[in-house]
Amino acid sequence: MFIYxxxxxLLGALGHxxxxxxxxxxRQAMATLREWREQVGQARILWMHVAxxxxxxxARPIIERLxxxxxxxxxxxxxxxxxxxxxxxxxxxxxxxxxxxxxxMRNAKRWLRLLQPELAVFVKYEFWPAYLKALKKNxxxxxxxxxxxxxxxxxxxxxxxxxxxxxxCFQHIYVQDQASAVLLQKFGVNHVTVAGDTRFDRVMEVCExxxxxxxxQGFVGEQSNVLIAGSTWPEEEQMLARYxxxxxxVRLILVPHELQPKHIQQIFQYFEGRYVCYSDxxxxxxxMARVLLVDKMGLLSSIYRYGQVAYVGGGFGAGIHNTLEAAxxxxxxxxxxxxxxFREARGLQEVGAAISVNNYRELAAALDVAFENKEIMGQKxxxxxxxxxxxxxxxxxxxxxxLKNNSTVLDF
Length: 412
Prior knowledge:
By secondary structure, the chain is α/β, with parallel strands linked by helices. The chain has two domains: about 1-195 and about 390-405, Rossmann fold, CATH 3.40.50; about 210-390, Glycogen Phosphorylase B (Rossmann fold, 3-Layer(aba) Sandwich), CATH 3.40.50. Helix content is about 50%, strand content about 15%. The protein has 18 helices and 14 strands. The chain has helices at about 1-15, 15-40, 55-70, 80-90, 105-115, 130-135, 160-165, 180-185, 200-210, 215-220, 235-245, 260-270, 300-305, 325, 345-350, 360-370, 375-390, 390-405, and strands spanning about 45-50, 75-80, 95-100, 120-125, 140-145, 170-175, 190-195, 225-230, 250-255, 275, 290-295, 310, 335, 355. Strand 6, helix 8 and strand 7 form a beta-alpha-beta unit. Helix 11 (about 235-245) runs parallel beside helix 12. The longest helix is centred in the N-terminal third of the chain and has 24 residues, at about 15-40.
């Protein structure tokens, strides 16, 4: 762990933007926490920690319900990643957003001495030994939510005893699926409940509050073959450009993962003038274009509602992005080969609502199949999301009960 953080510092010193932001944010976090804690006085604190944006979305339904039902409790949200922090540093449903300082025992002791949380919640796969040990030593009820475990993780290796012991620092672990519960119980971790994944509840909320987007509506018009490609990377964008060139009846709305001007210019070259940019478009002028390039953040979850088939990016890199944002609108989903760490990707494929591809030939064939069977596959996608909802209720009830029954907490 020390080596890892020294590498981060070295990368920051060499000019790596994300590493530099993480190191700077961690250095400032302790002093900022001290100032904030003095401001809130004797208020009770709930600490929620997430790695990045994806885990934040899993925490969000819990945070917002607690914010509504337990307004006397202050909520601190911490991030590890710079991208998560930068995107949500102004999130108004919590009282403070910070980076989590480097996980040494000294930092963990100082952090808890300043923070004095009534409750701590970690999301999915955040296991910082120093913080978990300090929380347990100080008797702070600590939960892990929306967790998922696989046999090849360090916890379950012959040499993984140290990591397995960390799991006993949690008062309770809420996992996404039965396989995770069985695996944990096999290794003596029995304080486990299968609750599901709170992201299903979150995407339902987002779907119900989706924005009206006149430019998108103007582009789509009466078209019945609209492909929404979300969170895409360069290799995928080149394949999608080829697909659109070969399918004259398909329109594409492209929402790339990276929106830097240099990358946008690169995308322009792929499509050779057959595109219009969202920032330059007006509703009445976009209907003649075949490709709409969305160069604005924060619209993807609402854009999916306007399409018939979705391609979710990331699968030719580190891993696919959020497939549920598309599936909730009842549309088939196609993605690349790196999906194995995502339970929902497996579930969508098992019910016949999604297809994984390994190259352009498979991508073109999968998109053709998805368009031909969009009603049937789309219904299966929607049914799957509906069945998986409910994790928020299970987890929230446990956290609220802990807060309510803790004698040091304000009377709710």
